[in-house]
Amino acid sequence: MTVLSLGLARGVVELKAFFRERDAVVFTFALPVVLLALLGSLISGVYDGTAVTSAQYLAPSMIAAGIAATCFAGVGTGVAADLDDGTVKRLRGMPLPGSAYLLGKVVLLLVLGLAEVALLLAVGVVMFDLSLPADAARWATFGWVFLLGGTGCAFLGIAIGTLAGSERAAGAVLNLPYLVLAFVSGIFFTPIKALPEPLVAVGSVFPLKWMAQGFRSVFLPDGILSQEVVPSWEHGRTALVLSAWCVGGLLLCLGTSRWRRRRDG
């Protein structure tokens, strides 16, 4: 069997295992949805010269945050759990190539990410009258932002998950940087130009800011560009930054991943 077929088969196993854990399913999908519903209900107002409300501006950013939570923190914690219970060690004995195991995780995150997006879009449409794009070009933009952003976050999560000492430690190690990045990336600021310039500079280094900007370009009209840091969606720069994080995350992942805990010898 090829690495691709092994990876896809492993992805199916990952999905079955995930959806059997009801608590994990609920909490994975609930947090971004609850945050969007609460924050969107608390903020109000319409931006000058547009028909875009503050809640509608928040929705695409929360979609990016939901994908990052699933792909970065969720997948990273899952890898740490696989190391703790010996799953990865047993797979290695089959033997299963490390690349196939990583591909299985990517399949898992893509499916979970799409499910997260569907839920958040449902909240945005039903509660805040968010309009879905009608042209194929915007959906194409959604596709490459989702794939590049989600894959880059997943590789980083896997790398950190393998370095963490345990599943419990991985949860703390992954959630802290995720929350910090959510703030410096302007996820909870409407509009992002209200974010202090030093924080904008820091957030621009990381993928979450660019994912949120890319999704805003999909679901919001171009008239809202007056509320962005620069009056452009910067699709070229977004693709470049997200691609760089995919490559860098993969190299970091391959360089740090191991099949057993150090305590196991």
Automatic annotation (TrEMBL):
Any single Pfam family the record assigns to this protein: ABC2_membrane
Keywords: Antibiotic resistance, Cell membrane, Membrane, Transmembrane, Transmembrane helix, Transport
Subcellular location(s) of the protein: Cell membrane; Membrane
Main location: membrane
The keyword Transmembrane appears for this protein: yes
The keyword Signal appears for this protein: no
Domain ABC transmembrane type-2: from-to ranges: 23-262
Membrane-related topology note: Multi-pass membrane protein
Residues passing through the membrane, by range: 24-47, 59-81, 102-127, 139-160, 172-192, 239-259
Family, similarity comment: Belongs to the ABC-2 integral membrane protein family.
Protein name as annotated: Transport permease protein
